[in-house]
Amino acid sequence: MKILHIIDSGGMYGAEMVLLSLVREQINIGLQPEIASIGEYGIEVKPLEEQAQKMGLSVSIFRMRPGPNPVGALKIRSYALNNEFDLLHSHGYKGNILLGGMPAAFRRLPLVSTLHGYTSTKGLSKMRLYEWLDRKMLSRLDAVVLVSEAMRDDPKLRRQVEADFRVIPNGIAPFEEVNRPPDDPALPVVSRFCANNFIIGAVGRLSSEKGFHHLIEAFGMVASAFEECKLLILGEGRERDRLETKVRSLGL
User: Fold this and answer.
1) How far apart are CA 95 and CA 7, in angstroms?
2) CA 246 to CA 181: how far, in whole Å?
3) Which residues pair with 201 in a beta bridge?
4) Which of 8, 46, 169, 228 could form a disulfide with 94 if both were Cys (CB 3.0 to 4.6 A apart)?
5) Could you state, in chain order, the average pLDDT of each consecutive group of 10 residues for the chain (252 residues)?
6) The whole model's pTM is what?
């Protein structure tokens, strides 16, 4: 089976890591996946494209103007049909809108989508419009994959009763030993922090929908009773200053 994974990536985040792992594991079981990477004109190489190529994965690059783009959608459709793909798998609103907007009879290929979660948006914004369009397309897809049961209770999704939701938790690739350079500046800092302690670890983008502020508050309730317990958060994002302020305010 040939599968074309479609994504408009903004960096190397959770969805990108899941996709790279998924493509590698699909190859291991005999499937033929390929990544169709969407981007705007003028972008030479995206981090996802570079990482996929380093891993020896097949990547096709599509550059197009931003926003709903029928011409770009036709390019992806033509590429998929000409190369005899069996399935389109969209990761994110861009692929859902571009290809979900096509009549299924014209698209001629089944289209499934994995929802990796929505970001926090407030007020009127371009992103909020895209997310609204994305949800409108879900009922037009052949299947929609949610990465957790909790996503079924998301207020943004509960009204999409006609969508065919399936829950498939994110897979974790088999552990591979990584030989990090001994002069990596992060190693002594993290090692000293974790040494001889019970560590609670969390990894993710530092944005409000990830709920790290709840984790810090909960840890603050138990830290005084379990002095050997420490919390280690690995990530970066716009909530960093707010989270650091919360840590200091709780005396953690």
Assistant:
1) 6
2) 33
3) 232
4) 8
5) 95 89 94 96 93 95 88 95 97 91 94 83 69 85 91 80 86 64 69 87 88 95 88 91 96 92
6) 0.81
**Considering only CA atoms, which of 40, 83, 78, 91 is closest in space to residue 62?**
40
Residues whose CB is less than 8 angstroms from the CB of residue 184 and which lie 6 or more positions away in sequence, other chains included: none
Reduce the DSSP state of residue 114 to 3 states and report it.
Answer: strand
Alpha-carbon span 146 to 113, nearest angstrom: 9
Q: Residue 62 corresponds to which tokens in the numbers above? A: 């599509």
DSSP 37-60: EEE-TT----HHHHHHHHTT--EE
Helix/strand/coil for 86: coil
8 A C-beta contact, residue 36 and residue 79: yes
Cα gap 247→241, rounded to integer Å: 10
d(Cα 141, Cα 156) in Å, to the nearest integer?
17
- Which secondary-structure segment (H or E) carries 234? strand 229-234
